Structures are given as C-alpha cells and as structure tokens.
C-alpha cells in the first residue's frame, strides 16, 4: 500500500504543467487522426450521396428563387396595371396621360431587387406605345428602341389575338437601332405579357433582365442551368458546350436526377409556373470529390508530424507566460497590464487592468456622492496623498445638431473616449467618468509644475479639436486649482462646477481655470421692471422687444458669465408668471409657451440666442394677451372689473350673480369654462397680484397691504401669499428692493 502511494505521489510531483500540456495535445492529435481515418473510410460511401443532395438543394433554391420572383412580379404588375393612371391611359392613350405612368415605370425599373429593365404599355386601337423613357408608335418601339430577332414587331401585334391573362416568353437578346451603322445591345431579357381580362386592345409587357436574375438566383459550382416552360420551350439557358436535353426526355425518368453518358442531370418542376429547371454536373466532377489519392495520405502524415512538433512548441510557449500572468495578477501595483502574444493571456491582462480602472472609477464616484463602503475606502488609498486637479467638460448641444452628426449621447460618448485616451497617454493614472448627461469629469494627478504646464498645453490642443466640431455643440473646459489630498475632492468638485458657471455665452470652446470673471447680478432696473410689467399686461409686443434689445445692448459686450445671464432669464420667467393673472392670460396657455423653458435656456450657446429666446417668449405671450383683449366676454369682463374695483371688500359669488341677473351656479360654471379657473381662485390670485404691487411701496406696512386687498387676518394673508408666490410677504419685499448702482 505504501509503495503504491509513494508511486502515486511521485507521479503527481513529476508531472509538470508543461508535460500535462504535451500529453493533452498528443491525446487530441491521436483523437483527430483516428477521426480522420474513420472519416476517410466512410467518405467514399457517403460523399457521392452528399454531392447529389447538395446539387439537388442548390437547384431547389434556384427554382424557389425564380418561382417566388415570377410570382412577385405578377402580383406587383397586376396592382400596377389596375392603378388609376394606367386605367386612364388604357381608356385615353394620349401623351398628356403619360408622365405619371412613366414616372411609375421608372420607380419599378429603379428597384434593383425586381430586375425589371423596362415596362411597355401597348394600345392596339390607337397604335400607341409607352415605355420607361418615352411614348412612341409600335413600329419605332419594336424596330428601333426594343428590337429582337425572335420578337419582331409582328410578334407583339399578334399577342392581341392570343387568349391568356399572362405569359412568360423565352429569353432573347434585345437591341436598340438608334444608330443605323450599328445596333447597340441592351441585354438578354425575359418578356412577360400581362393581359388581365384577356384584353384584345391593351396589354402590358415587362422585360426582366435574365442575366441579373441568373447571377442572383443560381447557386452552383458551374454555370449550367436550363429553364423549360410547360410546353417544352427553353425559357432561359446557360449551358456548356453540350446541347440542351429536350423536356420530353426528362418527364419519364420519375426521379429528381439521373445519369446518362458522362453527366448527372438534376431537374425540378415549379408548382405554380409549371416550369422545369435543369442543372447538369459532369460525372468527372463528382468522382474527383470522392477519390482518395496518395497526395492526401502524405498530407495527413505531414500534418500529424507537424502537429506533434507544434504541440511541444506551444506547450513551452504557454508555460512561461502563464507564470508571468499569475505574478501580474498577484501584484498590487498599478503597472501596465501584462501583454502577451497569446490572445487569451493578453485579454486576461487587459480585463484585469479594466477591472482595476472600473473599481477606481466606482470608488471615485462613491466618494463624490458621499457613499462609504470598505471597497471604496481601499481603492481610495491608492491615490490618497497625490496632488490633483479636476477637469470638467461641460457640453451644450446645439439645436440643429442632432440631424447633422447623430444623437447627442453618441457624440458625448466620443468626446469621453477622446478625453480618456488623451489623458491616459500623458497621465496614466487619470480617471475620466461621465457624471451627468452633458458633463464629463477627469481626475488628473500632478507630480510637479511641469505636469501642470503639460496639462494646460493638452487642454489647448483639445480646444482646437473641439472647435472643429462646433456644429454639434459648444464645450466648456473648467480646470480647478491644484489640491494636495484626496479629502479635498468635495471642495475641488464644487470649484469645478462653479468655474463652469463662469463661462461666457460665446460660440467657441472655453478653458476656464480661474474665477476672475465679473459675477455681478443682472436684472432690470425698477423703472425697466415697471415698464416690462405694464407692456406685458397690455400685450405690447413691440415695446417688450425694444426693451429687451436695449437691455441686451447695454450688457452684451460686458464680460458677464453664463450663470448671471441664465439667472436673469430664469428670474424674468418667474416674474412673467407672477405678472400674468388669470384675467390676463390662461395659465395652461402660458405653460404651453414656456414648455421646457429650463432646458431651452441651458442650450443657449450665445447671448444672441438667449436674447432671441426671451424675445420669442414675450412676443408670443403678448400676442395671446392682445388676442384675448380683442375678444373679451361681457360677463367675464364685468366680473373681472368688479373684482378689481372691490378687492378691499368681501366679494361673494351670489352678489355677482345678482348683479348679472343670473344664478350663482351658472355664473360659477360659466366663469370656469371661459377662464379655466374657478372664481374663488381668480379672486385670491387677483388679491395677491395687487398685493405684490403694493409691497413695492416700502412706506406701507404688510398689515396695511393685507387689509387693502381684503384680508383681515394677517396669518391668512401670509399663507395665501406664499401659496401663490412661493415667498412670505417680507421676503418678497426684500427681493424687490432696488439693485445696486452697478446695475
């Protein structure tokens, strides 16, 4: 027992990975040799049958392709024949009816999958012919434009006497005789004549390109193919030097193939067309595929010997890389991934490197989002005490870019890859991730001032590249100050976003690496604000547009950052909503005009675009207000005027109904139907709107303002004011105080 165990242990110790590989390869070679010998022994009995099946299948595919195509052509052409334009042409074959039919013919002919070269309409009574390029007479058509030895002009005239709905005629070569000195060949066509209803005066002839159909449908090792119709006529032939076999000799055979003399004959008959398809294969071709010769034996022996040699070489070559790969996997350093000439080993090394990169990005995102776990803390230690900067790429898509360069997410992905590859070459430890739908953040580690200058130079190069793609959007590159510990990541992240806000509204790539930009707030002066509100309520589009033009002309050339411009626009949007009460404009209409306003503002690339957007909004709002004024309702006008004149008093629905001589229920539903809001909400909205105007006067106390608009309880006033404005009266008054002199 001990001897057996010791022998077993010795075997385990002595068999190395190299030897196991060699044994495994030799076992595979032995198995393959055995299978090869067995396959060769069976081959002589089976190859002949397989070749027959193969050629039968190829012929069946060819037949199915032709049959389906003939059926497709028949279906489409019947639809075309009964179209309005063709029927009108049949009734009145005149040149004025031909353009639309010619246009339709050209559409059919231009379809490369139908193989239609021409479609001809022939009217016997009017001796009128129309084809894809012109209208003419039968003489010119079939003697000049579409001449054929087999199908002269008389043949086409005889078809009016034939009694069939459609018929496929044998293929023939057609010529054009435009030049008397020589005829120009058009091609080999298969004519199909359609006479729905067996018309004796009008029919349609479709000319299929026989060569193109043959090249598309015939699949075989040789070119031999013959197609017979049911009467035994040869519809199409691509045969060798041997003469074609008559159809009557195929019918008695009964089998789908037979051999005669030195050829195999494969034939099939289509179910719908009753056409017979014939393919011939020389017996010598079939025998050559089943013969086992001396060359093949020598090749098998040589392959076996070569395989054994390659097995030893591969085993030796795989042994060392595997050891190095294991050492690379065990290593904890951030060195380059292990590279090998063996694809699988190289893939494993790349996957390990990618996994480390993904873990680092994952840990980085977790830290930015303040998500703590053991893995992220471990990954963070790899770069915890290195100097770094953030580079934030903020992308603004242009309005017309999606139809020019593809979708915005795809374009942003290419930008991310470009940035990631660029930084990885100069700064191997850099991490690049997409943090928002339009923002890419890169963490770049710096060793000294030389690296910082190198980074600035690389950003300048990126700016040149990005400027070439301004049709798709505009990119702002915000670079933070240098930070020296990873605990400062939140501060750096905040600084990167702040610096993005310091960009200018200009149509070019910007690099923002400082905060030295004018950051003063923008807004209308008190006088401009009053003018804006008054013209807005009056629906004066021209005055509003001129006011915006004056305001933007005043500030356009100043170095104002984008954040200030956007805050101005957002503030004015809020004021527009506050200034327009229900009696001035229906809230749903206002919401429709300002739909996706925030997104549209963020996509403004230049100050001019922002000005145009605001001008468009106020112009549309003013037009709606003006239209509403022009069609005022008598009942609604009375209610609004009464409410506006009696805000300091209690206003009851019944009182208004009595004054109008109608019931309170009818007045309530009528007001809601016409204005989109119920009467109580309108009264509250009007009171608060009036209160906002009174609060602009700093001499009035808030209690006095509340009583002036009908609120006896200051608590109720505060609650209602905040409901409609989002602010307490005191906070609203603070926001309404005059701006600094710099404004």
UniProtKB/TrEMBL annotation:
One of its GO terms (molecular function) is DNA-binding transcription factor activity. The keyword Transmembrane applies. PROSITE patterns: HTH_ARAC_FAMILY_1, HTH_ARAC_FAMILY_2. Keywords: DNA-binding, Membrane, Transcription, Transcription regulation, Transmembrane, Transmembrane helix. Residues 637-735 form the HTH araC/xylS-type domain. InterPro entries: Homeodomain-like_sf, HTH_AraC, HTH_AraC-typ_CS, Tscrpt_reg_AraC-type_HTH. It comes from the Bacteria. The keyword Protease does not apply. The chain crosses the membrane at residues 21-40, 294-316. This is Helix-turn-helix protein. It comes from Paenibacillus methanolicus.
């Amino acid at each position: 027992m001990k001897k057996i165990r010791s022998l077993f242990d010795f075997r385990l110790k002595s068999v190395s990975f190299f030897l196991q590989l060699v044994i495994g390869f030799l076992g595979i070679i032995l198995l393959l040799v055995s299978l090869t010998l067995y396959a060769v022994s069976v081959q002589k009995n089976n190859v002949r049958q397989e070749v027959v099946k193969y050629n039968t299948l190829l012929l069946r595919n060819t037949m199915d392709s032709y049959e389906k195509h003939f059926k497709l052509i028949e279906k489409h052409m019947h639809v075309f024949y009964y179209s309005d334009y063709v029927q009108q042409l049949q009734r009145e074959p005149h040149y004025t009816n031909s353009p639309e039919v010619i246009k339709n013919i050209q559409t059919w002919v231009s379809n490369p999958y139908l193989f239609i070269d021409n479609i001809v309409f022939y009217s016997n009574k009017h001796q009128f012919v129309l084809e894809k390029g012109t209208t003419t007479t039968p003489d010119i058509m079939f003697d000049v434009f579409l001449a054929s030895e087999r199908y002269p002009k008389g043949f086409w005239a005889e078809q009016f006497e034939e009694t069939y709905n459609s018929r496929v005629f044998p293929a023939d070569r057609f010529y054009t005789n435009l030049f008397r000195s020589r005829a120009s060949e058009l091609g080999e066509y298969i004519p199909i004549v359609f006479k729905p209803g067996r018309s004796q005066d009008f029919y349609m002839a479709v000319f299929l390109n026989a060569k193109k159909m043959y090249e598309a449908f015939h699949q075989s090792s040789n070119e031999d193919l013959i197609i017979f119709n049911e009467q035994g006529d040869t519809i199409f032939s691509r045969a060798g030097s041997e003469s074609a076999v008559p159809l009557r000799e195929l019918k008695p055979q009964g089998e789908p193939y037979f051999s005669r003399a030195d050829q195999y004959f494969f034939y099939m008959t289509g179910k719908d067309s009753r056409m017979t398809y014939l393919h011939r294969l020389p017996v010598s071709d079939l025998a050559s595929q089943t013969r086992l010769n001396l060359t093949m034996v020598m090749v098998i022996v040589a392959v076996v010997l070569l395989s054994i040699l390659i097995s030893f070489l591969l085993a030796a070559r795989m042994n060392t890389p595997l050891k190095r790969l294991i050492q690379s996997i065990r290593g904890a350093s951030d060195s380059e991934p292990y590279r090998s000439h063996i694809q699988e080993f190289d893939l494993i090394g790349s996957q390990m490197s990618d996994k480390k990169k993904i873990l680092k990005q994952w840990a980085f995102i977790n830290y930015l989002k303040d998500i703590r776990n053991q893995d992220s803390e471990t990954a963070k230690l790899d770069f915890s005490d290195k100097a770094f900067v953030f580079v934030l790429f903020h992308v603004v898509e242009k309005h017309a870019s999606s139809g020019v360069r593809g979708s915005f997410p795809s374009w942003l992905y290419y930008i991310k890859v470009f940035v990631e590859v660029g930084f990885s070459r100069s700064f191997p430890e850099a991490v690049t991730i997409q943090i928002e739908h339009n923002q890419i953040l890169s963490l770049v580690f710096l060793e000294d001032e030389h690296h910082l200058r190198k980074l600035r130079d690389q950003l300048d190069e990126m700016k040149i590249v990005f400027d070439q793609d301004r049709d798709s959007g505009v990119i702002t590159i915000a670079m933070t100050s240098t930070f020296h510990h990873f605990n400062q990541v939140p501060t750096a992240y905040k600084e990167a976003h702040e610096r993005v806000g310091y960009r200018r509204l200009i149509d070019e790539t910007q690099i923002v690496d400082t905060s030295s930009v004018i950051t003063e707030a923008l807004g209308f002066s008190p006088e401009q604000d009053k003018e804006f509100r008054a013209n807005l309520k009056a629906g004066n589009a021209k005055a509003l547009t001129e006011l915006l033009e004056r305001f933007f002309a005043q500030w356009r050339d100043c170095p104002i950052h984008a954040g200030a411009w956007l805050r101005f626009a957002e503030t004015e949007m809020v004021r527009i909503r506050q200034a327009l009460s229900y009696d001035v404009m229906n809230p749903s209409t206002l919401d429709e005009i300002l739909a996706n306003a925030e997104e549209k503002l963020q996509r403004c690339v230049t100050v001019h675009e922002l000005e145009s957007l605001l001008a468009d909004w106020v112009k549309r709002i003013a037009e709606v207000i003006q239209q509403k004024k022009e069609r005022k309702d008598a009942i609604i006008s009375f209610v609004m005027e009464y409410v506006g004149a009696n805000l300091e008093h209690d206003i009851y629905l019944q009182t208004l109904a009595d004054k109008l001589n109608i019931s309170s229920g009818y007045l309530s539903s009528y007001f809601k139907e016409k204005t989109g809001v119920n009467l109580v909400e309108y009264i509250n909205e009007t009171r608060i709107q009036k209160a906002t105007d009174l609060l602009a006067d700093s001499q009035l106390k808030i209690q006095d303002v509340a009583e002036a608009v009908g609120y006896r309880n200051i608590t109720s006033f505060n609650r209602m004011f905040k409901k409609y404005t989002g602010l307490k009266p005191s906070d609203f008054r603070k926001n309404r105080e005059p701006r600094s002199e710099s404004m």
